[in-house]
Specification:
Chain A is mainly β. Chain A is built from no helices and eleven strands. The chains are: A mainly beta, B mainly beta.
Chain lengths: 116, 111
């Protein structure tokens, strides 16, 4: 298995532009997570999907952020408009655990976002 | 507010010695704890975990200790190797919910 695939690896954009980050989870996994890593806050959970349905989006910073999971093999995280403070590494992770446990997450390599 | 805290941003240890990474948590509902390891330009990878019903779990050179009364866990690496140099994240969850991560501790193992 290729693991969790994220694209692009790096994104540099100007303030005000729309940014779309993409994620392909591991085939068969039913949970998908978007995390953001910054020096100040470490790894923050942004949103969590289970069986393509958003379960908790309370970590999404504000309305400028949105996430979708149209099917089991694809998810997007969109920022519109982007701001310099959105600069961070964004990770997608998936988990195949059913029932109670979602702990063993498999992470992608991340997208390094720089908003100028 | 951070519910999982790693108060040491960095740690340097000599090869062959023990590395001890610490983690504190505030939510007494957490019932599962994990450590993840992250190399530069890669995503975190699972290292070891422990359930709240245990106080120790060992896997090769890695041992995690849990002290529920103190809301504290630690990761011991013995002996430390240069390849262990990475950022280590402590994480916790309850009832199978999504993981809460700490800010990470950067470990450097010197030859």
């Amino acid at each position: 298995d290729a693991g969790v695939i994220q694209s692009p690896r790096h994104e540099v954009t100007e303030m005000g532009q729309e940014v779309t980050l993409r994620c392909k989870p591991i085939s068969g996994h039913n949970s998908l997570f978007w995390y953001r890593q910054t020096m100040m806050r470490g790894l923050e959970l942004l949103i969590y999907f289970n069986n393509n349905v958003p379960i908790d989006d309370s970590g999404m910073p504000e309305d400028r952020f949105s996430a979708k999971m149209p099917n089991a093999s694809f998810s997007t995280l969109k920022i519109q408009p982007s701001e310099p403070r959105d600069s961070a590494v964004y990770f997608c992770a998936s988990s195949g655990q059913t029932g109670r446990r979602n702990e063993k997450l498999f992470f992608g390599s991340g997208t390094q976002l720089s908003v100028l | 507010d951070q519910q999982v805290k790693q108060n040491s941003p960095s740690l340097s240890v000599q090869e062959g010695r023990i590395s001890i990474l610490n983690c504190d948590y505030t939510n007494s509902m957490f019932d599962y704890f994990l450590w993840y390891k992250k190399y530069p330009a890669e995503g975190p990878t699972f290292l070891i975990s422990i359930s709240s019903i245990k106080d120790k779990n060992e896997d090769g050179r890695f041992t995690v200790f849990l002290n529920k009364s103190a809301k504290h866990l630690s990761l011991h690496i013995v002996p430390s190797q240069p390849g262990d140099s990475a950022v280590y994240f402590c994480a916790a969850s309850f009832s199978g919910y999504a993981l809460n991560f700490g800010k990470g501790t950067s470990l450097l193992v010197t030859p």
